[in-house]
Amino acid sequence: xxxxxxxxxxxxxxxxxxxxxxxxxxxxxxxxxxxxxxxxxxxxxxxxxxxxxxxxxxxxxxxxxxxxxxxxxxxxxxxxxxxxxxxxxxxxxxxxxxxxxxxxxxxxxxxxxxxxxxxxxxxxxxxxxxxxxxxxxxxxxxxxxxxxxxxxxxxxxxxxxxxxxxxxxxxxxxxxxxxxxxxxxxxxxxxxxxxxxxxxxxxxxxxxxxxxxxxxxxxxxxxxxxxxxxxxxxxxxxxxxxxxxxxxxxxxxxxxxxxxxxxxxxxxxxxxxxxxxxxxxxxxxxxxxxxxxxxxxxxxxxxxxxxxxxxxxxxxxxxxxxxxxxxxxxxxxxxxxxxxxxxxxxxxxxxxxxxxxxxxxxxxxxxxxxxxxxxxxxxxxxxxxxxxxxxxxxxxxxxxxxxxxxxxxxxxxxxxxxxxxxxxxxxxxxxxxxxxxxxxxxxxxxxxxxxxxxxxxxxxxxxxxxxxxxxxxxxxxxxxxxxxxxxxxxxxxxxxxxxxxxxxxxxxxxxxxxxxxxxxxxxxxxxxxxxxxxxxxxxxxxxxxxxxxxxxxxxxxxxxxxxxxxxxxxxxxxxxxxxxxxxxxxxxxxxxxxxxxxxxxxx
Length: 603
Fold this sequence. Notes:
- The protein is α/β, with parallel strands linked by helices.
């Protein structure tokens, strides 16, 4: 788990202290001081059997540290009983407060504050921009001492706000200012019992259970209302999320929307997310939208303009983006370890035959039965867009066949869709996805100018989505497996999709809290993930010709598309209706749907 990080700003007062009688400060002078330094620092930091030479390397091998100017001792009657190292990271002009330590036999006397004082005085004289230190919650006395010395918490890694709320609660401190990693102000952080929770309403009591579960158990959000057309489903919610006494239940969406809440999670039908998202934002609510973001270009233009008009947060819940393997690939790519994208592949192949009765309810006109195979592309393409930050420019589509499996499911599209997407830097991404293959597979691979990285295929091992491998350019060694654990792995592990659903909600809540580090998928990125699929189908219908992928960040481009309703949903397409399958909608008799409805009745 990442350590806590704290900053001290030079314009902040330094609490002045007078040393008790018999105590004094001194500097590192000779090699003999090394043993005393180790004796002080071993306390609570490493085991008593730690190798002295390896341990003291943190000061003797750091090129920024001048042992004789930067290492200080607190002495009692001439004996070193505490130490602190205060040095400047020269290339950054930032101070570092390192190894604040009191020897074991002198602990509990409140002596660490004198070390903080001498470090702050020294670094202020050095003219640093700010001073930093790292610590851990279990060093309770140290953390409390740093807060008393006007060091401030830093928001720099996932989960920091919640961890600091817990620290403040334990210490009985109501609030403290929090900073971003560049030392600019973030906000006041309040102790857990005083912290305001984000009020969430969920539209859709089926898929929405995952989002509700986060609200019930996270401590940072509160589930206040649920809306679903099925009263039976609403009544059954207590089976999944526990006590629902304080949660308002609605079957009417307009009544639900009037409820006091900060954000609406849209877990309703996937062909209806855009109009409801617009309605929510115009009503003053933030939005988390499940897949799909839109169905056609008219909806895309209207959605973008609603976000811009209202200023509300729109977050797209493409959960594959937050898979542990995809998150680690993004970290490596953004750190430059893979270089510039040259080629990538993403696959989301999901044999849905056994669950299709529950997905489509045996309704021949259900959106899942009428949508093109290309529309569900964001599970395969989305993570690669998010990893690289590049936008699509052009796409060519290839449609899979209509198979007996799709016939049995009552789905009128090809078993899969494949997009070849040319990105803005000229790189190519192959995106393969479908609901009708013979086997499942979830897999991502990136070839960059400086190396290759790929996840483990879904059926290669249990929890394959948590496994990822890296090989730098020119290496002749086998790819190295990289740990995908982070500060929230343990909390996220109980959530669906390898924990990805947890991160979707976590980043949403952080964004609503005002955290600029929140990793949400905004409306523009959501469309970058979806529009290649929409236009890949146009490519197929046009005989395989390349299609330009519009960028709706450009307002002039919007005018070209704002009346284009072309899609496979009759209710949204009007006179621009496209067939679900490029060769024409297959004839599927009602007996197929009757069988599905019979299967559904058994649950």
